[in-house]
Amino acid sequence: MGLETKSNKRNKEHCQLTKDKETNPNPLTNTTATISANSSPRKSRRRNRRLSMTPVQRLFETCKGVFSSGGPGIVPSPENIEKLQAVLDDFKPGDVGLAPNMPYFRSTVGRQTPAITYLHLYECDQFSIGIFCLPPSGVLPLHNHPGMTVFSKLLFGTLHKKSYDWVADAPCASAIMNSEGKHPDVQLAKMKVDSDFTAPCDTSILYPSDGGNLHCFTAVTQCALLDVLGPPYSTPDGRHCMYYYDFPYTHFSVDGLSVPEEERERYAWLQEREKPEDLAVVGALYRGPQIVDK
Ligand SMILES: [Fe+2]
Questions:
Q1: Could you report the per-residue pLDDT of 194-234, keeping only the tens digit for each?
Q2: Which of 178, 168, 164 is nearest to 254 (CA)?
Q3: What's the 19 CA to ligand 1 centre distance in angstroms?
Q4: From ligand 1's centre to the CA of 29, what distance in Å?
Q5: How many angstroms is it from 105 CA to the middle of ligand 1?
Q6: At 224, which helix (H) or strand (E)?
């Protein structure tokens, strides 16, 4: 999930990394001491520049390489996934100027569901970077990521995550029946995760059709969640954020489908819904180290 912002067309033409950057498997190992005598001064300057980058700039440069040939439904190569995951695994709250005592993480007085703040760092057609700031009990309701690969790094706090993937070859709507004998507009999904995560923890990744593409987050404590989406949501392209109710497997009966009793808890029926009325995601200006898009 993310705020659907206008793509920054200005940045599109800059989303190509040089071949050197794309093929370098581990920029962190390139210290001045390891540069061979044959290295050109230009290459040395490039390496030194990379070493002196802020973590957020390194994240941006890595995203440019990883998503340069991306698009809806296109998953980056395993090498690129590993590269971006490694950059995010090292990320600390201070790298984006955040700390749990900041106002973003305080519960809103008078609101039952606390408002969530979204800090927008960057967006182009290929990817977006943003941070969700959740006060305790803040909820990002069950939503999808159509055609996307999403990297999520919990910067601090404890967050409960529940996620699902659609079941392939799920029963058609006419075979599903509720207690009144009607056919509800629901689709079968299999649960991927239903657990608490406490920072520091590894970056989690979801894919267009697995890894828990549909998910819901509930903040157990105040949390900061850094999200990289590739590609971002795009309403004009029909890839907007959709919200869902989830119902237990036993809520409906199905002709011709048998799931062993002990596995039923791992399945749920999802039904599309309007954006929840009590969901308040408020955009705020990101004030941490800036991304420079040259
Ligand atoms: Fe999400």
A1: 999 999 999 999 999 999 999 999 999 999 999 999 999 99
A2: 178
A3: 32
A4: 33
A5: 19
A6: strand 223-230
pLDDT in tens, 51-104: 689 999 999 999 999 999 989 999 999 999 999 999 999 999 999 999 999 999
Q: Identify whether the C-beta of residue 130 lies closer than 8 Å to the C-beta of residue 124.
A: no
In whole angstroms, how large is the CA radius of gyration of the chain? 21
Q: Which residue has the tokens 């004009």?
A: 236
Determine the distance separating the centroid of ligand 1 and the alpha carbon of 215, expressed in angstroms. Answer: 6
**Predicted confidence (pLDDT) at residue 172 exceeds the cutoff of 90:** no
Distance between Cα 168 and ligand 1 center (Å): 21
Alpha carbon of 160 to ligand 1 centroid (Å)? 13
Topology given in CATH for the domain delimited by 55-284? Jelly Rolls (2.60.120)
CB atoms under 10 Å from CB of 49, counted, come to 11
Distance between Cα 145 and ligand 1 center (Å) = 7
Q: Where are the domains of the chain?
A: 55-284
146, 230 Cβ separation under 8 angstroms: no
pLDDT band for position 260 (cuts 50, 70, 90): confident
Ligand 1 centroid distance, CA of 65 (Å): 22
CA of 20 from ligand 1 middle (Å) equals: 32
* pLDDT class of 21 with cuts at 50, 70, 90: very low
